[in-house]
Amino acid sequence: MRLTELLRTSAFRLTLGYLAVLAIFAFAGFRYLYSESLEALQIESRQIVAAELEGLAEHYRTFGPLRLANVIDGRSRYGGRSLYLLVDRRGRKTAGNLASWPEAAQGPGTWHDFHYRRAHDDQPPHRHTARAYVANLPGGFRLLVAHDIDEEIALSRRIVIFGAAAGGLIVLAGLAAGILVSRDLRRRAEAVDETGRRIMEDGDLSRRVPVTGRGDEFDDLATSVNRMLARIEVLMAELREVTDNIAHDLRRPLARLHARLEDVLRGPAETGAYRDALERSVAEVRELMDSFNTLLAIARAESGPASMLPVDLAGLAEDLVELHAPLAEERGVALEFTAAGPAPDLEGQPELLAQALSNLIDNALKYTPSGGRVSVVVGPSGVSVADSGPGIAPEDRERALDRFVRLDPSRHLPGNGLGLALAAAAARRHQARLVLTDATPDQTSPGLKASLEFAPS
Amino acid sequence: MLDILIIEDDAETAAYTARGLREDGHRVETAANGPDGLEAARDGGFDVLVVDRMLPVLDGLSLVRSLRAEGDRTPVLFLTALGSVGDRVKGLNAGGDDYLVKPFAFAELRARIEALARRRTPVATETDVTIGDLEIRRLERVVYRAGTLLPLKPKEFRLLEVLAEHAGRVVTRTMLLEQVWDYRFDPGTNVIDAQISRLRAKIDRGFDRPLLHTVRGVGYRLAAD
């Protein structure tokens, strides 16, 4: 991964931001700690110097310059880290272990850091740093007391080095972690990205985003994207099927219509024949339109959102039975409605369900011979329409729900072969099933029982 | 005679429809887009507006909404290629009075236009309607023919009532399905014809002059002539 790519990843940018904030706070904290410990070290050396100076000045005031020089010489010989220099009014050294008055330490009453050379432990003299305080004594004497602060400086230097090293390590580790995390996240985001790009390239909706099985948020995302893809795939397949079917199914009647009209045109130019052909053509176009509308209704039932309303299944069935009652009577078929227990509580599209149930009743009346019976029963599982017609052989039942399937080979009854298909689509729309069974299995005419069975809610 | 405005962008449909309505003796104006149609409708004087839902520049829904907002109550019949329940509800909510899905039979359009125009006359709201010797008392929901009480079931009464509201004019099968049963789908084979036969058996059987007439290929008409 190149640096520019790395910088573009959100994970790395987040890491950088995090590191920057961490560095600012760590630096501030370190500085505070550093100045506090420096202060503590300085207080110690200053207290030593101040105490000695105070003592020596007191000595001078009490015993005079000679005794002071003796004391200083005594202390100087003692070695250690204290430095002394007493000069007279002409600046000549009277006592002390410093060779000359340091340039940097002039005025009294304030602290001065200065460098001096010093030999110890049999090593050649090298540069030391000391902190000095100067006091002007009566009689023109000037006294300088200093304390070697090399250790103090070394310690503070060590603190700085340690802090810098720790800070550097934190930043490096952070950057490394950032790079690793960015790489990993990027790889996983790329997996989603890659799938999407390939689908856009070749339209193959069967592709899926890989799921690692770690169960993290990327897996959640991948699962959700995959579920969406699966849904789109199903919808696309359905859409393709519907358009294919409509195109295929309307081609045949259109061709027939076309042939008839051409046939009439080829024939003799008689008003009567024209009129007859036109009337039949208009009727055929109407049938075609009905088929088309039903196909659209099926397609609409099978896809797309719809507003859901409460459905009174029993009321709906009763109304439809009442609507079909005179027709049944004309045909000598007994049409009955029975409420066998409470209907299921439904939310759905009442009009679509009414149309589905109407188709079932219409079908039953169509295939039931005179003297037979059709009974519509509403119960807790849904609604069923049973007739005493010839029924449908078990092997044909699944096919009977397809579009444009007409099992009656003679086709002497009107219909477009879409009634059961629409009822089945309406059932699917309501998470219900359209089940075809024998109404009276033991008899020679088994009849058909078409049930809309709703899943218990 | 009715004054009818057709607002329809498909010139051929508009021309056929206008010609058919003129042959019936109506005065017809046409407009080919929304703004022209709105302007013509605002000039007023029409008994019925026939409005296509999808029009160039200003769509039919917005056009009717504007008219209604201005207080214009002229009956509107929407023509549309959109036939779903939701589309119909949208059309009626915008202020449409009826809704006809394309393609339609001309006779269906004619019957609906005449029904809409009639809605403005008080016939539809009268409590008692008399057609020949048929007397419909809407408050008590009873019917007499030549002084004899006819035993009608509730739905049969409603069927007769709808026919009576449009007395003298054709009512189509789909209009009956919509107004009596509130169904917007075609329940198929001859259900309405059978319903009418049963009603006819109750109101016309045994009387010399039939009142309930079949208009072949279109629908039914209740009239004393």
How is this structure best described in words?
The complex is a heterodimer of chains A (457) and B (225). Chain A is α+β, with helices and mostly antiparallel strands. Chain A is 57% helix and 16% strand. Chain A is built from ten helices and twelve strands. In chain A, the strands form three sheets. A five-stranded antiparallel sheet of chain A has the order 2-1-5-4-3. In chain A, helix 6 (271-302) packs parallel to helix 10 and helix 8 (350-367) runs antiparallel to helix 10 (419-429). By secondary structure, chain B is of the alpha/beta class. Helices cover 40% and strands 22% of the residues of chain B. Chain B has helices at 11-23, 34-43, 60-69, 85-93, 106-118, 154-165, 173-181, 191-203; strands at residues 3-7, 27-31, 48-52, 76-80, 98-101, 128-131, 134-137, 142-145, 148-150, 170-172, 212-215, 219-222. A five-stranded parallel sheet of chain B has the order 2-1-3-4-5, sandwiched between helices. In chain B, helix 1 links the parallel strand 1 and strand 2 (27-31). In chain B, helix 2 (34-43) packs parallel to helix 3 (60-69). The two termini of chain B are 20 Å apart.
